[in-house]
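Incident log, structure service

09:12 report received: a user says their structure output differs between two submissions of the same chain.
09:20 pulled the input from the user's history:
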Amino acid sequence: MSAILVILFTLFTIAVSAITTIPFSIGLLVIASVLFKKSWVFFLALGLGLFLDLTMIRPLGYTGLVLTIFAFILFLYERKFETQTVAFVFISTFFGSVFYLWLFGYQMVFLQAFINALSAILFFKIVISKLKSQNSKPNL
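09:34 re-ran on a clean worker, output below:
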């Protein structure tokens, strides 16, 4: 069930990224790396980055490199902090979004980063509640 939610959120991220400048891909990467802790998150980061480069008409690879490095940093902090908390998701999404928006020269960096962090928390709580309800059901 959680894989379906991540796929749906990825599709939502792809659709919205072409319309708005809010980097929802940062929130997706934070949630995927915090919940799953698998190496496929790097491929997700690279794929989202390439798609964003294509839609924003940038040279290919810049956004993919930034998102892959961001995912790597999240995996580095995995052992030092309790990562499956709302606070970690908010802070890492906020600072990752601020850096991304600043690096690519967008306006209203803090407002967009705040909106992105709030949306990441909302999706994180939805996925966590689905995981808890899925684990509480008895196996038949």
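09:41 both user submissions now match this output. Likely a transient worker issue. Closing.
09:42 reviewer note: Residues 2 and 130 are 7 Å apart (CA to CA). The chain has one domain: 2-133.
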